Amino acid sequence: MEKQAAKNKSRGLFGSSGIRGVFGSEVTPELALRLGRALVSLGFRGIAIASDTRITSSVLKHALISGLLSGGASLTDFEIAPTPALCWGTRELGMSASVMITASHNPADYNGFKVWDNEGRAIPRTVERKIEEMLIKGSFPSYSWESASSSLDYYDVSAPYTERIIKEAASLKGGMRVVVDAANGAARGISSLILRRLNYDVTAINDVADGRFPNRQPEPNPQNLSETSRIVREKGASIGFCHDGDADRLVVIDEKGEVCNFDRFLAWLSLNMARESGIKRIVTTVDASMIFERIGLNVIRTRVGDVDVANKLYEAGGAFGGEPSGSFIFPKWGFWPDGIFAIIKTLKFLEEDGRPLSVILSELPESFLMRSKVRCGRDILNAAMEKIREEVPEGAQLSFVDGIRIVSGDSAVLIRPSGTEPLIRINAEAPSAGRAEELLSEWKKRVGDIISVLGGGAE
Fold first, then answer.
1. Residue span of the structural domain in which 292 resides
2. Cβ contact 429:367 at 8 Å
3. What is the pLDDT of residues 108-124, one digit of tens each?
4. pTM higher than 0.85 for the full model?
5. Does 285 lie in the same domain as 213?
6. Are 271 and 376 contained in the same domain?
7. Could you give the CA distance from residue 197 to residue 236 in angstroms, rounded to a whole number?
C-alpha cells in the first residue's frame, strides 16, 4: 500500500477526469474507503452515489459507503445509473455532493471515482488536491460510535431523469430510423427508451447491463464501433448514437455508417448551440481542431478534461462546452457532460436542417489533425518538456495551458504529457494532410531525440 501511495503521489491520484486505474493495483476497496472518509472530513454530508455496470463497482461502492457512513454522512444510493443522471439528481434533490463509481470509457479491468458538487458540476482542481493530499497521507479522525451514521436510502434516479429528458424533447418530430449502442453500460435501456417514447424507429444494441463489455470495448472510437456502423448501414438508419460505459460521452455515426469526425461534429454542435443561444463563445480543449476559430466562434481553450471545460464554462459563461472525444456540456441544462441529453440536441438540429448529417458536416472547413505519441519515463517528463520548449521556433504563437501549443499561421502543433500513461502526446494540424504529416513526423523526431538524450523512453 505504501509503495502504491508513493507511486500515486508522484503522478497524482486525480487525472484529467477523476481517479481512475486498474482495479486491484491502482484502484482498491481501501482507496474507496479512504475517499469516503476524506469527503466527510471536508464537510460533505448529504451525498449521492451511483455506479456504472462494471463488475468491480459493487465492491468499491460498499467500501465507499463504509467510509462515508463511518464519518456521519447521510447517503442516497442511486444504484446503477448514468453519470449525467447522477449529476442531475444531485442538483434536483439538493445533495451536497455526489460520487460516481466508473472508469468511463476505459476497459473492463479499470474502475475509478469522480466527485461532483451540489450543482452536479465536477469539483474544482483545488478541492481535488485537498482530497488527494488526505488520501496519500491517510490521516483521518478515528472511528467512533458517536460519529457513525446509518442514514442510507435508495432512489431510482434514472426514471425521473428520463421523464425530464422526454419533456425537454417535446418539440422533436420523431419518425426517424436510429440505432442506439449503449455499450452494455449505464445507459442501457435508457437512451433507447427515451427515443421510443419520442416516436423514433429505434434499433438498440448492447442494451443490457454487462460490466465485462463482451460486445465491444466501452470507448466509442471507430475501431470499436465497426459492428455498430455495419448495423446503421444494414438498417438504413439516418443516424447512430454510441455511448461509453457511464454515458457521459456520445459519438455519432452518420447515415453512411461512418463514425463522424470528432472535431467536425463538435464544431457543428458548437455552431448550432451558438445560433440557438445567441452567444458565440464556446469552451473546448487545447487538443481540439483550429476549425472552431475558422468558423467564427469565440473560443476559450482549457486543459484536456471535461472537468476543466465545465469549470471554465461556469466561470466565463458561454453557449456550450465540449471535447472532441464526445463530452458535451450544455450550460442551460447543467454543467456536466451529458451523452444522453446530447442525443436530443443532435436530433433537434438535424431535424431543423433537414439534410443528411454527412452532407452537413462536409460543408465545414477542411482541416487535417493527426495524432501520435512517444514513450517517456515519468522521471524525466518535466525535463523533457523544458527541453521541448527550447525547440519552439521564433515568431510562433504559444500557449502553455496544457503542455505546449505552437500556432504558426494556419498550422498548429500540441505537445503535452499524458495524464495517465508514461508518454508524451503530439498533435499536428494543417490545411493539408501532407503538411500535417510533415509536422507530426518532424516533432515526433525532435521529441524522441530529446527523450533519448535524457536517457529514457519508458518507465
1. 160-362
2. yes
3. 999 999 999 999 999 99
4. yes
5. yes
6. no
7. 21
